[in-house]
Amino acid sequence: MHHFKNPSFELIRHDVVEPLLLEVDQIYHLACPASPVHYKHNPVKTIKTNVVGTLNMLGLAKRVGARFLLTSTSEVYGDPLQHPQVETYWGNVNPIGVRSCYDEGKRTAETLAMDYHRGAGVEVRIARIFNTYGPRMCIDDGRVVSNFVAQALRKEPMTVYGDGKQTRSFQFVSDLVEGLMRLMEGEHVGPFNLGNPGEFTMLELAQVVQETIDPNARIEFRPNTEDDPHKRKPDITKAKDLLGWEPKIPLRQGLPMMVSDFRQRIFGDHKEEDTATNTSSS
Questions:
Q1: Domain NAD(P)-binding: where (predicted)?
Q2: Do 72 and 110 touch, CB atoms closer than 8 A?
């Protein structure tokens, strides 16, 4: 990791399902696999991470007086009947589906956070994160942007599930980090949608990847997955008004930075790594 040489950085390997004692001022609670491939692999562990893990971190925040930020998800809206999604929308979630371990786990985590806030006075912040992409993502992550980029670089067909008309909104990782920090340092509990309102169908995303990597990259259609939301787009009015935050990097600008990182890691091309560094700093 690039932070290991920083004397202010310390890494502790720990499972949040087990209690943890630390002296901290702020807790960014991001623990949970976010890719459907990963969270469906062990659904019981996923919901334990969301429920027991969140309880443990809230307990820690209460004991040491730390401010607690929960990274929830746009998945709390399920397959939404409202578009775009605002924070007051309660969602349309299947409580017994294959995605429920994640969707309902995050909804329960939000419940726990608000109960600790109201009942125990814990300073809580809640972010609902929409699809995010960028360098250093796991190459075989299973999420759509990393899937398409890795497949196109490897000269494999890009797999589109269903008819490709389902939509998502993609924010670059640095925009998300800024939003989380503004939320943590601000005075508003939330929840806040943190996402890029730029909406793309899966076919449009595949075409942007083609433009960026290989115009001849092929698209292959597969049967759709269960409970896959048809539309997903954040209304970020609340974040704009109360946090002064909105994403700055559009997909066509952020994707090449991710592609450079993936290309270097897949093929070991250090020249591409230098290009990615120069692009990132410009």
A1: 23-258
A2: yes
Residues in the chain: 282
Which domains are seen in the chain, by residue range?
A: 26-281 (3.40.50.720)
Calpha distance 78→71 (Å, rounded): 16
Beta-strand relationship, 199-201 and 167-169: antiparallel
User: CB–CB of 20/61 below 8 Å?
Assistant: no
Compute the C-alpha angle 124/126/132, nearest 5°.
145
Q: Which two tokens stand for residue 194?
A: 């943190």
Q: Letter for the amino acid at 172?
A: F
**Helix H or strand E encompassing 160:** strand 158-161
Instruction: Tell me the C-alpha to C-alpha distance, in Å, between residue 104 and each of 4, 47, 48, 155, 209.
Output: 35, 8, 11, 37, 32
And the tokens for 200? 């793309």
Catalytic residues: 102
Residuewise pLDDT in 10s, the chain (282 residues): 678 899 989 999 999 999 999 999 999 999 998 878 888 889 999 999 999 999 999 999 999 999 999 999 999 999 999 999 999 999 999 999 999 999 999 999 999 999 999 999 999 999 999 999 999 999 988 889 999 999 999 999 999 988 999 999 999 999 999 999 999 999 999 999 999 999 999 999 999 999 999 999 999 999 887 777 889 999 999 999 999 999 999 999 999 999 999 999 999 865 444 434 333 332
How far apart CA 20 and CA 12 sit, in angstroms, is: 11
Residue 140: strand, helix, or coil: coil
Dihedral Cα 48, 196, 158, 228, nearest 10 deg: 50
Burial of 197 (0-12, 13-18, 19+ CB in 10 A): middle
